[in-house]
Design a protein that fits this description.
Blueprint lengths: L3 E4 L6 E2 L1 H8 L13 H25 L9 H31 L9 H28 L2 E9 L5 E11 L3 E4 L1 H4 L5 E2 H24 L15 E2 L2 H8 L4 E2 L6 E7 L3 E8 L1 E2 L4 E5 L9 E2 L3
Parallel strand pairs: 5-13, 8-11
Antiparallel strand pairs: 1-10, 2-7, 3-4, 3-12, 4-5, 4-6, 9-10
């Protein structure tokens, strides 16, 4: 997918494509004590994500006011981003687990391809964020804040690097995650995370429409809305920069009058010589840190 549109409601918030599809095309649900209605499961997951996204965007905006040699704001943005990753993964798991638990996505052999396409999309969108959370939780990886500044213009980009413990006392950049880049900018990252989550919602709406429509189900006219409009506007109004050895392209979005266009975007390169600042958190044991 990658390039698609999502409508905004009258309050400027995102309308769930899955919620709209369900209202028009409800399907039979599985039975069981722990089976949750898919619209409710998505709503609960997004409610947590909405608050975490607000905190991350607020922290990023506050980091614009940093003073020379004061990286506290960038560290605050990093902590908010790490918390956001965990809430995002919980929401990805709604699409990966809760929806298939409540709906049979392959009622006939003819639905095998659409089911596979759905799960492939969820995995692709979840991979980066699940990797960060799993490695931090289970393998003692850490995130470190990075700031790159153009010596020519003073413009800067704030971001992060994922570091993995190596040997007895070393921290190195995770090549599995970064693929040759030195770090990733927060602005592009937050846009990509929203893009990935909404792409999952789109995939869920598309697989839903392939299933047999149920009859005799009372309509649920409550719209499913993602209340992140203020954060989308804040992110869309920021200029996205890419620093030295940061990938310029990212999956992001642009705002239109009554809808959001999700598409691949290109960041603006920082000009001239670049000064790089990284803040490592000491653990009283690590003594060697890879230069970023």
């Amino acid at each position: 997918m990658g390039n698609f549109y999502v409508p905004l409601n009258s309050d400027g918030d995102l309308v769930s494509l899955f919620g709209a599809a369900w209202d028009q095309h409800p399907v039979a649900m599985k039975q069981g004590e722990d089976v949750l209605h898919p619209k409710r499961a998505i709503n609960l997951g997004f409610a947590k994500f909405e608050g975490a996204l607000k905190r991350a965007v607020d922290a990023l905006q506050a980091s614009d006011d940093y003073q020379p040699n004061d990286e506290s704001h960038t560290s605050d943005a990093l902590r908010a981003f790490e918390d956001l990753c965990y809430d995002a993964v919980e929401l990805f798991d709604v699409y990966a687990q809760a929806i298939p638990k409540s709906i049979d996505l392959r009622p006939t052999p003819q639905h095998k391809k659409s089911e596979k396409r759905y799960f492939d999309t969820i995995k692709k969108c979840r991979d980066d964020w699940g990797f960060i959370c799993n490695k931090i939780k289970h393998n003692h990886y850490v995130l470190a804040p990075v700031r790159q500044t153009s010596k020519r213009t003073g413009e800067s980009v704030r971001g992060y690097v994922l570091l993995q413990p190596v040997g007895e006392n070393q921290l190195n950049r995770s090549e599995t995650f970064h693929h040759g880049e030195t770090s990733r900018p927060f602005d592009a990252t937050l846009q990509q995370m929203v893009h990935d989550l909404v792409e999952c919602d789109l995939a869920a709406s598309e697989v839903l429409r392939t299933l047999p429509m149920a009859t005799g189900i009372s309509p649920d006219n409550r719209p499913l809305v993602f209340r992140v409009g203020a954060q989308l506007r804040a992110l869309a109004n920021r200029r996205v920069y890419a620093g030295d050895l940061q990938k310029p392209s990212y999956e992001g979005f642009s705002l239109e009058e009554n809808r959001v266009h999700f598409l691949r975007q290109n960041a603006t390169r920082l000009p001239g010589q670049i000064e790089v600042s990284v803040v490592y958190r000491g653990d009283s044991y690590t003594t060697n840190f890879e230069l970023v």
